[in-house]
Amino acid sequence: MIRGAILTRRCGLGTKYMIERQGSDWQLSIATCPVNWNNNDLSNWRPVTPFPTILDRMREAGYRATEYDGLFGTDVATVQEEIESRKMVLTGSYQWVDFLERGDQSSAYDDLRPTLQFLADIECPNLIVSDSLRPHRIALAGRVPADGSASLDNSSYQQIADGVHAVARIAREHGIGVRYHNHVGSWIEAPHELDALLRHLDTSIANLCFDTGHYAYGGGIPFRFIRDHIRDIGYLHLKDVDTAAVADARDRKLTFLEALREIVFSPVGAGAANIAGILSILVESQFDGWVVVEQDTCAGDPTAAARANLAFIQQSLNVLQTSGR
Hints:
- The protein contains 13 helices and 10 strands.
- It is an alpha/beta fold.
- It has one domain (6-323): Alpha-Beta Barrel (TIM Barrel).
- A 10-stranded mixed β-sheet has the order 1-2-3-10-9-8-7-6-5-4.
- α6 packs across α7, α9 packs parallel to α12 (275-285) and α12 (275-285) crosses α13 (302-323).
- The longest helix has 22 residues, at 302-323.
């Protein structure tokens, strides 16, 4: 039960919403992501919004925090100046990693050290890692058999977890936290696959960047997972899925990339992920990680879409306040 008001106002750097709950203040931290404007997985999707113009579009949409993207460049002073001049902060950076190929030895990940130092220098505190996209898994998107027949064996899940632990230990030397991201088109897509990885993952070393849209696309119920595993999640990608588009993609056996072009991820709140219910859990649990709002592709202006997605979150928080939940 929330007692007091939910004040949808920004507090300090980043987009933070103050929650007055039983006499104590807590902030829900909301960010955006460059993928809302530029999808690196899709060539010729739309004209690229360049850096630093993309930061201006983010601010116009109401955000004061974003993930880093390679488009921003690697000059520390330039990145910091453009971010700080707009009173923004960086929340994390995404990294594909083939954990099965690299193995579990720390030395196999030494090439990530410059990236980790760069993130530390630009004050970007999280590295989001995911198993690499694989052609046969991209082709199987949303249709991974629940019986495990197209999934990894137990030792391979252990190998991925050990690799994540190795990266996290290196990242810790740079003051960077590591979060594992479930992703359609990778080995960790379907609910039983994320469950299997989680059995081997020590979340005191590296926890999850849970993606609600990818989990729903893969056949899961994000609300239920977050309810049951909130303590295993340190960072959240909040996105929604279009129920009809997912069903159509499965029926037509579309690849993940083909489905992206057909706008399989809906506006936040318009799909099957139960975003309002998820926000309720975040408030009740006083979730202290970043909530990154994403819509990987949209039919219209991405800035307008990002603004509308944030407005839905604000409205949902206001409903929670009114209902006292």
